[in-house]
Write a structure and sequence with these properties.
With 492 residues, this protein is of the alpha/beta class. It has 14 helices and 16 strands. The structure holds 2-acetamido-2-deoxy-beta-D-glucopyranose (NAG) (3 copies) and zinc ion.
Length: 492
């Protein structure tokens, strides 16, 4: 459905290009084979780093071909257009929703029509929560209708809603100090934004901490780097031994206003209604496709993003772009007629937003083969202009990744940072498999849109997405095609 059919002329051109390309790349590779020492049976490197470096340098023309096709050539904007068609057609794709299942079925067809191999769906069980109708109105000191978004897994309010006075705090410490004031109230958190990782604890645990001191609901300032009156939803967690109270996020603007009102000594009263409900887990799928390896088909380089999203906006940025540049990486490799030695596998995860649910089930199913995974890759923090990758692995593997990233000099995307243990690949990283995430410099801008109505195609720049796809394709292809797997521990 997404494939723009080739004209006859285009087919001929591509054919000639491929032939030339193979003669050239083939010659370079023959030369490098002649000089390289063999690897022994168990795949352990017998080669010096200098020899590995030379092998990687021989991919310069391949990298240029990928870059040209994705960034300047006939497939520029392809992944952007493919993504636009999916998210405009389906909309947001919450775990457990019909939309997510529709998106999975469409992607299954897309990947088949794209000519990828072993396209299949792997069954998983995923959470099913729905927000229902929800509203919040400030009644005192003045009537003010507030924008809210219930947090994933929140319970609803009792029939008729909750009307209560507010206690505003800026931190969990302040909540502890003022615990005696919290009983029967709605706790409003007006914590400052100090970065996602540090601030998100208020969204995750705000309800539990408020319930512990007797609050009847909690409203949390959206975890966002910037706001034009936009609430940002997300996952939160109850604790078994703590009463469950309804919880939602409010805008930065309202959190600050309520805080100002309270500090002037005003009594703030809010009426909250939430129809949120959790249903039994439902059947879903991780969506899988691959280009089977020519020499080591049992060995895998995994590229991934998640297909699910929150239920507001279009889930274009989180994580449509990550899923679609991962697909694009395989498409580009295929379109250039390349087949890596190892299998290049695409996985589109289900229910990442609920805590990597689909990915954890994939790991359980496949972990017996962990020693055959050379690298697991995930893109889930937007695709603004990338500056490099984040990598977790041994020093030797990192040195190899640095060489591979130098192939991206034409795009000026050459950095190898530490970290990158994204939710969906962290299971593998914990098991010692090297992991990489796409790194872009603009996390500040990412959290303008994250989990809000603003997460739409309008937040995506096709040119930046082209660059991200090219980076993703070069890294995944070269790691899948170099003679050895990435070394794990220093001993290997
Ligand atoms: C790709 O998108 C950019 C930015 O919107 C646009 O300038 C360019 O013309 C597009 N290229 C193609 C081939 O459509
Ligand atoms: C593990 O790898 C082997 C060899 O490729 C394959 O036959 C088997 O199906 C894999 N197992 C799982 C659970 O993926
Ligand atoms: C290359 O990227 C770095 C950031 O990674 C940036 O500071 C620099 O200006 C870029 N150079 C060019 C020529 O674009
Ligand atoms: Zn995400």
């Amino acid at each position: 459905m997404f494939l723009i059919p080739f004209s006859q002329e285009e087919k001929k051109k591509l054919g000639t290009m491929k032939l030339f390309f193979f003669l050239f790349v083939g010659a370079v590779h023959l030369l490098s084979l002649g000089s390289g020492k063999a690897t022994n049976k168990n795949g352990t490197s017998q080669r010096t780093f200098q020899e590995i470096k030379e092998e990687i340098a021989s991919y310069e023309e391949v990298a240029k071909a990928i870059i040209n096709l994705a960034v300047y050539g006939k497939y520029q904007n392809r992944s952007y257009e493919r993504l636009g068609l999916l998210v405009d057609t389906v909309g947001p794709r919450l775990s457990g929703s019909k939309n997510l299942e529709k998106a999975i079925q469409i992607m299954y067809q897309n990947l088949q029509q794209d000519g990828l191999e072993d396209v299949h769906l792997e069954p998983v069980r995923i959470p099913h929560w729905e927000r229902g109708e929800e509203s919040a109105v400030m009644l005192q000191p003045r009537i003010h209708k507030m924008a809210i978004l219930g947090l994933g897994t929140s319970i609803g309010t009792p029939p008729g809603g909750i009307t209560a006075e507010v206690l505003v705090v800026t931190s969990f410490d302040e909540l502890q100090r003022r615990a005696s004031e919290a009983r029967g109230k709605i706790v409003v958190y007006n914590q400052p934004y100090t970065g996602y990782k540090t601030t998100v604890q208020y969204r995750m645990q705000g309800a539990v901490e408020a319930a512990k001191v007797g609050a009847v609901a909690s409203l949390i300032r959206s975890v966002a780097s910037f706001s034009i009156y936009s609430p940002h939803t997300g996952f939160q967690e109850y604790q078994d031994d703590v009463p469950k109270i309804p919880t939602a996020c409010i805008t930065v603007e309202d959190a600050e206003m309520i805080s100002r009102m309270a500090s002037r000594g005003d009594t703030v009263i809010i009426h909250l209604e939430m129809g949120a409900k959790t249903y039994p887990d439902t059947d879903s799928f991780n969506t899988v496709a691959e280009i089977t390896g020519s020499k080591y088909p049992d060995q895998v380089v995994l590229v991934s993003g998640h297909l699910d999203s929150w239920d507001v906006g279009q889930g274009a940025m989180d994580d449509g772009v990550g899923a679609f540049i991962s697909w694009e990486a395989l498409s580009l490799v295929k379109d250039l007629g390349l087949r890596p030695k190892r299998t290049l596998r695409l996985v589109l995860w289900a229910a990442e937003e609920q805590g990597g649910i689909g990915a954890s089930q994939y790991y359980e199913l496949h972990k017996a083969n962990a020693s055959r995974y050379s690298l697991v890759m995930e893109s889930d923090s937007g695709t603004f202009l990338p500056s490099g990758i984040q990598f977790t692995g041994s020093d030797k593997a990192r040195a190899i990744m640095k060489e591979i990233m130098s192939l991206l000099q034409p795009l000026n995307v050459t950095k190898v940072f530490s970290g990158g243990e994204g939710t969906d690949i962290n299971f593998w990283i914990q098991a010692g498999v090297p992991g990489a995430s796409l790194c872009d410099d603009d996390l500040y801008r990412y959290f303008f849109f994250h989990h809000s109505y603003g997460d739409t195609m309008t937040a995506i720049d096709p040119k930046q997405m082209n660059v991200a796809a090219a980076v993703w394709a070069v890294v995944s292809y070269v790691v899948a095609d170099i003679e050895e797997m990435l070394p794990r521990s220093e001993g290997e």
